Amino acid sequence: MKTKFLSAFFLILSITAFAQEKVNFTEEFKKENQGKSTVEINEVKELLTIMLAITDFGLENDDMFEQKGDYYQRVLKHFKPYKEEEIIKTMNSLLMKNPLEYIFFTGNAQTYFLKNDVLIPNNAYILPANKVANVKIEVNPITTYKKEIEDFAKKSHFSEFYNSEKAFYDKIISDYEKYSNLRKQWNWLEKNFDTKIDSYIVYTSALINGLNYTGGYENNNFHLIEMVLPTIQKVEGRSEKNSEAFNTRSMFTEIDHNYVEKPSVKHKEELNIALKDREKWVNTKAYGIEYYPDGFKVFNEYMTYGAFILYAEEIYKNDPKLLTEINNEVNAVMIDRGFIKMKEFNEELKNIRNKNKKKKIDQLYPELIKWCSLQ
Fold first, then answer.
1. Which domain, by its residues, includes 46?
2. Is 246 contained in some domain?
3. Potential cystine with 153: which of 158, 180, 256, 264 (Cβ 3.0-4.6 Å)?
4. In terms of C-beta distances under 8 Å and separation of at least 24 residues, what long-range contacts does 356-365 make, across chains too?
5. Residue 88 within any structural domain of the chain
6. 234 inside domain
7. Which residues belong to the signal peptide in this entry (predicted)?
């Protein structure tokens, strides 16, 4: 029996920035990454994801790990014989106590490179994923279990498996570059918000399902955003344009947290007052809505998807049928999650935007907050 409780919980992770002092962006690093957007199937991250996926906890959570497709079957065939290794049992115990351990392992994967089954420190990243929600760690779990992870990689012949899948990984990356429109989204957000980002990294895997998260790091006057996302989804029954919009939305609503939140912080007190009547804005019985406990966080989630609607209205303006589909789906998804005024919010946001087309979206907040307060 598969457990279905994680996806709603982990929606909060996309708005959680990890502590910024746990990275070290040298001048060389900045020069190499300035203005770049990359998609990567990180070797250490894939190793750790596979290890977590074959725990008893992982095998019982298909909302955390994608268990459809040939790749998952290849993973099971190759690695499941090693699931009784002590490190896998340890990971299972940790996950049972706190599912956030998934983030602390995979979110710190870039702190090491794997070479000849040995984990080599990456000096640019020290402990990037050190705080998620209200849970904080001081020690990198990969460092704690470094020898055990190395032993598993060697015993299971992980590097051989990883290298044998190169063509599969390359196809995943090329699909991202073809269908996700990351650069287009980035350019639009930089044009329409005051916030500026120096570099983006997308970490993906065919094993990722509903557990997506975003981290933001600022160090040495360099702002980098990383996103951990599923592979490009080709959903049966959708047109090619609708599929493109669906995949764009999945990425956009991760990226734009970094732009939406800054003006929200500026108006935090006003937002908490304007949306203080909680039952007008959320279905308090919806699962996961408790992770949006105040007006500030509720507004941020509305605005995250509202900004995508503004993007869609501009990018797909010549396709009214697709725009209707996008609007209807966003409203339905958000209402199902408990954000009951999504349709009204989007309509008002579009109205305000149409009256202020030359203004940055940051500048629309006061009028939108005023509307919220009158509901």
1. 6-173
2. no
3. 158
4. 360/192, 360/193, 360/194, 361/192, 361/193, 361/259, 361/263, 361/307, 361/310, 362/193, 362/194, 362/262, 362/263, 365/263, 365/264, 365/266, 365/267
5. yes
6. no
7. 1-19
